[in-house]
């Protein structure tokens, strides 16, 4: 093969499906898809890396994703809520202020309109300056500190602008007095496969790839002359060019004679892992939400999603699927729990929140993703540049969320994969 593609996640599959040259994808797992894999069992469908609904401000990419699914696509309207102080508040929080108590509503509106915070370079600074003290302290700070598993003043704010929309003052005022408004409108309607979960999209790309080797975990990568050699410790493959979509940390460890400065910089890149607890519940009243966001720090999961509302085929009739997402790191008290203990903790908290009745539990599973969320610490840019520049000097193309160590959504991952293929094809 001319080109070796390390990693059979979504980006690797997109590149492999569009590259003109003969290429081979090497995937560590027995199934391709990476973060975009799904568990279909017992009549339930779950996305094991957390929910991956299809939406985008890039209409060309969105239409392309939809076209890849053919007839296997359903369109739904978002019904996300935030569980705050025992109330269901419309998502995003600033568009649901009318559901708050009068005191909380006043606090949020007053501090948004008369905001004494002028900004700074931390995520905490940005939240206060953008939303004001009320919204910041009631929702934005506790929720973000749960999902990032890190104090917000230890994170840079350089990634937030453009990713988290600034709410118009008109919408905040309307929301506070009970006039219906919508935020994040590009997410209001979304697509999702009718069958197979989001893995159906990944497999649509996989079907267009020439050669895919699963069960091949990249352990050693080296170059001799004009040829790259990639080994899993037992077998070695040979290529003229190399594209990496695997985590940059894993690739750097696989390369020989990496300069110490590069090794140290890449090792300093911080990330969160994700544990997803997947439950099937029999019920005569399936919950109507697409997702619930939970800022309460006493509850380990930050979001609970309901895939039966993504597609009518995602759960049997009279049942609902429940996915609880928990951001973890070693030593945080959750990361090292056994699957059984983690399920018991989640089920107990879901019951306490009156979201499920444990007696009706019919299915349970856990999936853990090591590299889930990129953490933008203050040395992030310098650390990442050291790694990517070194790989570029070697002639290795890096593309994808973990290979570029960039917090990107599925649509942007596909766009970047298409761009890499086009560039290598000389287009």
Short description:
The chain has 427 residues and is of the alpha/beta class.
What report would you give on this structure?
- The chain has 427 residues and is of the alpha/beta class.
- Helix 3 runs antiparallel to helix 5.
- The chain is globular, with a radius of gyration of 22 Å.
- Residues in helices, as a percent range: 25-40%
Can you name the CATH architecture of the largest domain?
3-Layer(bba) Sandwich
Structural class of the helix and strand makeup? Answer: alpha/beta
CATH class of the largest domain: Alpha Beta
Strand coverage percent: 15-25%
Identify the strand order in the major beta sheet: 7-6-15-16-17-14-18
The averaged pLDDT comes out at 96
Compressed to H and E, one letter per element, the order equals EHEEEHEEEHHHEHEEEEEHHEEEEHEHEH
If helices are DSSP runs of H or I spanning 4 or more residues, what is the number of helices?
A: 11
CATH superfamily of the largest domain: FAD/NAD(P)-binding domain
Distance between the termini: 21 Å
Largest sheet: 7 strands, mixed
Question: Which key phrases capture this entry?
Answer:
3 domains, globular, single chain, Polyamine Oxidase, Chain A, domain 2, 427 residues, five-stranded parallel sheet, FAD/NAD(P)-binding domain, alpha/beta, seven-stranded mixed sheet
List the helices and strands and how they pair.
Blueprint lengths: L2 E4 L3 H9 L4 E4 L11 E4 L2 E4 L11 H11 L4 E4 L2 E5 L2 E4 L11 H12 L9 H26 L20 H8 L12 E4 L6 H8 L4 E3 L6 E5 L2 E5 L4 E4 L1 E4 L3 H7 L5 H8 L3 E12 L8 E3 L9 E3 L13 E10 L10 H14 L8 E14 L5 H15 L2 E2 L11 H15 L3
Parallel strand pairs: 1-2, 1-13, 2-9, 6-15, 13-19
Antiparallel strand pairs: 3-4, 5-8, 6-7, 10-11, 11-12, 14-17, 14-18, 15-16, 16-17
